[in-house]
Specification:
Helix content is 40%, strand content 13%. With 398 residues, the chain is α/β, with parallel strands linked by helices. Helix 6 links the parallel strand 3 and strand 4.
């Protein structure tokens, strides 16, 4: 008799966490723009927050030297001592707080992985993290991805977080609050006294501050960056400071970020990396040492150019009819789209798609940042590109 074929089984489903996770909205918007560009459309992309400058020459040369010197093997999972030391020196020099590079600094594969590692280290299923909105979606998504609960807290009209926004939001499950200043997506810069007040609030409630300082050097009009762990006694035991060389030194593809904080948490993150990615690129680490310890003139030059673009682009957006605050930090314009006939915010995703399809201008709808009725436009593009965007917007209408 012929053999009976075994039953066909259905492959097991993906994990529930991945089934509910959406891809990064900014990367998805960039992918749509690039797909149109491959079709020959003249797309101008203002989606991803990526400086358009080349990595400075002295940093590239440090990478070349690392290759020539054979520094291409595995390193300690949490980074080479030389880079940990450079980070500690930077934090002391620029932010006024001393960290032990051996036990209180960990090097990660970019700022995004540093944030994710912090969430893995801090959160148990059901733990809550306060996420002020509008916000970079990754904050909330990473909390959810590790089983936590993002608690979205709207800020006031100026998009600056204050203690009043947090009152009544802390529960027995609250583990941390996100502080991101200058802000992605709005470019808002928190007042120093508010940063210190939030640190005190967090400490009083026994919760951590997860401070994303990625855009700390991109400041304009006299705005000041306040480091969350500096200025309040004992704050360094409650602050996880996350940063990256990506934006400041135009090193987005080099994938070097870091976290500094209490040794018990940093050691746990280091241990986590031994079981996940192991070390960041050895060559990129040596380049980052030069970035942090080397000449900083390149940073000042890039920030000055961003400032000029900011003024030109935001003024141009206003001239063609958009309501748009002048950002004090980062490199994003955050204009409002026209209101609906009933006075409610318009659908920002639909508006962004119309801009892409009709004007071939790519940006990100505010819905991606939990804020309807707005757009995020990166002015990390040349002045010629920004002027062409403005010209297309003037013809696009509203």
């Amino acid at each position: 008799m012929p053999e009976t074929a075994p039953p066909v089984r259905t492959a097991p489903a993906l994990s529930e966490r991945l089934q509910t996770m959406a891809p990064s909205p900014t990367i998805a918007a960039s992918a749509r723009a690039r797909a149109l560009a491959r079709e020959g459309k003249p797309v101008l992309e203002l989606t991803v927050g990526e400086p358009d400058f080349d990595t400075p020459e002295h940093i590239r040369e440090a990478a070349h030297k690392a290759i020539r010197d054979g520094k291409t093997r595995y390193t300690p999972s949490g980074g080479i001592p030389e880079l940990k030391g450079a980070v500690a020196r930077k934090l002391h020099r620029e932010n006024g707080v001393e960290y032990d590079p051996a036990t209180e600094v960990c090097i990660c594969n970019g700022g995004k992985q540093a944030l994710y590692n912090v969430m893995v280290a801090l959160l148990n299923p059901g733990d809550e993290v306060i996420v002020p909105v509008p916000t970079w979606a990754t904050f909330a998504d990473q909390v959810a991805l590790v089983g936590g609960v993002p608690v979205l807290v709207p800020m006031g009209p100026d998009n600056r977080l204050r203690v009043a926004d947090l009152e009544g939001r802390v529960t027995p499950r609250t583990k941390a609050v996100i502080v991101n200043s200058p802000s992605n997506p709005t470019g808002a810069v928190m007042h120093p006294e508010d940063v210190l007040a939030i640190t005190r609030f967090a400490m009083a409630h026994g919760i951590f501050v997860v401070a994303d300082d990625t855009y700390e050097h991109f400041l304009y009009d006299g705005a000041k960056h306040q480091f969350s762990a500096n200025g309040v006694d004992g704050a360094r035991d409650w602050v996880l400071a996350v940063n990256t060389v990506s934006k400041t030194y135009a090193m987005t593809g080099w994938r070097i970020g870091y976290v500094a904080g209490p040794s018990r948490i940093v050691k746990a993150i280091d241990a986590l990396m031994t079981q996940t990615t192991s070390n960041p690129s050895s060559i990129a680490q040596w380049a980052a040492v030069e970035a942090l310890d080397g000449p900083q003139v390149c940073v000042h030059e890039m920030v000055a150019e961003f400032d000029a673009r900011r003024q030109m682009f935001v003024s141009g957006l206003r001239a063609v009819g958009y309501e748009c605050p002048m950002p004090e930090g980062a490199f994003y314009a955050y204009p409002r789209i026209p209101l609906q006939a009933d006075g409610s915010p318009g659908d920002s995703n639909a508006y962004a798609m119309r801009l892409l399809n009709d004007a071939h201008v790519s940006c990100v709808g505010g819905k991606a940042f939990f804020d309807e009725g707005t757009l995020r436009m990166s002015y990390a593009a040349s002045r010629a590109v920004l002027q062409e965007v403005l010209d297309r917007l003037s013809r696009f209408g509203h």
